[in-house]
Design goal:
The complex is a heterodimer of chains A (285) and B (359). With 285 residues, chain A is mainly α. Chain A has helices at residues 6-34, 38-42, 54-63, 77-108, 114-124, 133-142, 149-153, 160-172, 175-184, 188-199, 201-216, 220-225, 234-241, 251-281. The two termini of chain A are 25 Å apart. Classes of the chains: A mainly alpha (285), B alpha+beta (359). The interface between A and B is medium-sized, with 18 and 24 residues.
Chain lengths: 285, 359
């Protein structure tokens, strides 16, 4: 659509700039806070321009972890981030595999109660983790999966959203393609791997981005499952740091950790943006 | 290569009968075209031969195997689809070789077959391209290449040219014809385009609501349509159908049309007197020469100039009549030419059943 309305354009730009400032300012502040010494940050008013200590502070966060006066022990961010990474990747990959397979079953096979199962899956869309958290916790605890990666990942791995998205995509694949593959002699799994999965790859990429961020940002579930610091995720650890009572916070290091926690999701989005957008807007046929 | 036999093949979708029982013998190397309007069951029939649709009743034999319960991949057939059905993420080469790779054929052999098919179809420069980088005609050739490399005993074509523009369609039609002459593989071709049907077919199957109304050579189907339906479907413009009453008497049989015009029928025709539908092809009529007594006069509503010919659309009583005359005849809208009919090429049909009366 080509419209020439300079006033509306200017207004639109103004709004966008304002919104970007609102969103970006706290992040900027976190970066600034991470770049000063603890003395500088503790002053009022806090400095608004970046200092010189960014690398030192983030390196400390990464390898030592913030020391809380009055609280013993610290977990270096590198361990926490590794846990987060394992959890986010396992959730994203697991969700994609399970959703692809279940969407494949729902679209391409006839089996008893097919519609019933589809609607069962679909209904769980309306039940977020928080709603079913107590029974889920009970099951995971009974299975002896507390403080394990399996316990962190498994309950979050089934995804109605992804199943639904892949189902919608599969339904747009022309029937002739299935028939051509049948005549070529491709069995169901062959068809799935050789034709369906390659065709779905942009949607898979989009799903990976969404689910990676979902997994990375998980807070409540790790909070319940991971009491051992070895299994704690970075989001959880940041939350815990600022809730220590009567402690003297090492703010620059904490902020360094927060900035570090931002990086992997940003990296995933930046690296996969082209695919992500393609997957959401385009059906490649 | 193989012959294909259909024995009272039927297909029901629940209570709906799609195919009412088709019997057909297709000889080895024959080019059969199944033609009919949309919804007549022609694609269903083809898909049953391919194995993509289950057979409700009857038997399909390819070669000397009953294939009713054999998977499409094992029927020794190859199919070309209307929308090409190429795998969009594979190159032309991969598209053509996919079926062979699944069968576990060795690389050298695959390469040989793909190269040969590419050579036949002039696809060598495009082997590494993706389907979306090709034009419609090229895609269609890739779809045919995919069928050729399998070296099947039967080719199945499901309206392969209907997505192409008119010029390309004529060209691809010729290519398919040449390909068939070159390879000599039994082919079954479904189309709704009667020109394709007439030009390609060794034999033609005209389908009408799940039945094969007529199976015969294009010349036979055109010249001696078995039913009014076939006469109306094959030929453009369609055969004219006029209701008439046949009277026998001194001077031989004659057909009296609704407006009172009496046409003398050939003396050797001996239909019993009664009501009939007479079928007259537009091209069997001509303008009466000066001095001739015209057999009928047509009130022309519209004269359609086609270049080589003019179509005179008019009414005879209440019934429409179209005559095809050379374009220099000089008749225009609202003229009233006198016409002569080559009555030996007309046909009488039963007005109830639409079946042609054997004379």
């Amino acid at each position: 659509m080509i419209e020439r309305r300079p006033v509306a354009n200017a207004f639109g730009h103004l709004m966008l700039v304002a919104m970007i400032i609102i969103v970006a300012f706290p992040i900027y502040l976190a970066v600034v806070a991470a770049s000063h010494t603890i003395q500088d940050v503790s002053q009022t008013p806090m400095p608004l321009l970046p200092g010189a200590e960014l690398l030192t502070n983030t390196a400390r966060a990464l390898f030592d972890g913030p020391q809380l006066v009055g609280v013993s022990g610290a977990t270096p961010a590198i361990v926490l981030m590794m846990n987060s990474l394992i959890m986010a990747i396992a959730i994203a990959v697991g969700k994609i595999i399970i959703s692809l397979l279940s969407a494949f079953a729902i679209v391409y096979f006839r089996f008893p109660l097919k519609n019933f199962f589809f609607w069962m899956i679909f209904i769980t869309l309306m039940l977020p983790v928080e709603v079913r958290i107590i029974p889920t916790y009970k099951i995971v605890a009974d299975l002896g999966l507390l403080d394990t990666y399996t316990g962190l990942v498994l309950p979050l791995i089934a995804s109605a959203t992804a199943t639904f998205l892949f189902r919608q995509f599969f339904m747009t694949v022309p029937d002739e393609l299935v028939e051509a593959a049948r005549i070529d002699g491709a069995g169901p799994m062959r068809f799935f791997w050789d034709i369906l999965v390659p065709l779905t790859r942009t949607s898979i990429a989009a799903m990976f981005v969404i689910q990676f961020i979902y997994g990375w940002n998980q807070y409540l579930w790790p909070l319940l499952i991971a009491s051992d610091y070895k299994y704690q995720t970075i989001v959880l650890a940041i939350g815990r740091l600022i809730r220590a009572p009567d402690a003297f916070y090492e703010w620059p290091v904490i902020m360094g950790m927060a900035v570090l926690a931002l990086l992997p999701p940003v990296l995933v989005v930046v690296l996969m943006q082209r695919w992500f957008v393609k997957g959401l807007v385009e059906t490649e046929k | 290569m193989a012959k294909v036999t259909l024995k009272s093949v039927k297909k029901n979708y629940g209570p709906v009968k799609a195919i009412h029982g088709v019997d057909m013998e297709i000889a080895d190397g024959e080019f059969i075209v199944i033609v009919g309007p949309s919804g007549c069951g022609k694609s269903t029939l083809l898909r049953m031969i391919a194995g993509l649709e289950a057979i409700t009743e009857g038997e399909i034999v390819i070669g000397d195997r009953v294939v009713n319960d054999i998977e499409p991949a094992d029927r020794d057939i190859a199919m070309v689809f209307q929308n090409y059905a190429l795998y969009p993420h594979m190159s032309v080469h991969q598209n053509m070789s996919y079926g062979l790779r699944i069968r576990g054929m060795d690389k050298a052999n695959i390469e040989k077959r793909v190269q040969r098919a590419a050579e036949i179809l002039q696809l060598q420069p495009y082997l590494q391209r993706k389907p979306r980088e090709l034009s419609g005609g090229q895609r269609q050739r890739v779809a045919m290449g995919r069928a050729i490399v399998r070296e099947p005993s039967v080719f199945l074509f499901d309206e392969p040219l209907s997505n192409l523009d008119a010029k390309l369609r004529v060209q691809m039609r010729l290519e398919i014809k040449r390909l068939h002459q070159q390879l000599g593989v039994t082919s079954i071709y479904v189309t709704h385009d009667q020109v394709e049907a007439m030009t390609l077919a060794d034999r033609l199957v005209v389908m009408n609501q799940g039945r094969a109304d007529q199976i015969g050579s294009p010349f036979d189907v055109y010249g001696n349509p078995a039913t009014t339906y076939v006469g109306g479907f094959i030929g453009s413009p369609a055969m004219n159908f006029l209701s008439c009453r046949v009277e026998t008497g001194t001077g031989g049989p004659k057909a009296v049309l609704a407006d009172g015009t009496a046409l003398m029928l050939p003396a050797e025709w001996t239909p019993p007197a009664g009501n009939y539908t007479i079928g007259i092809r537009p091209e069997t009529m001509r303008i009466a020469r000066p001095g001739e007594t015209a057999q009928l006069h047509l009130n022309v509503d519209v004269a359609e100039e086609l270049g080589a010919d003019t179509l005179l659309h008019g009414k005879l009583g209440d019934e429409d009549l179209v005559a095809r005359v050379p374009s220099h005849a000089g008749y225009h809208d609202h003229s009233r030419p006198g016409l002569m009919i080559d009555i030996a090429r007309a046909h009488l049909f039963d007005p109830e059943s639409g079946l042609r009366i054997a004379l």
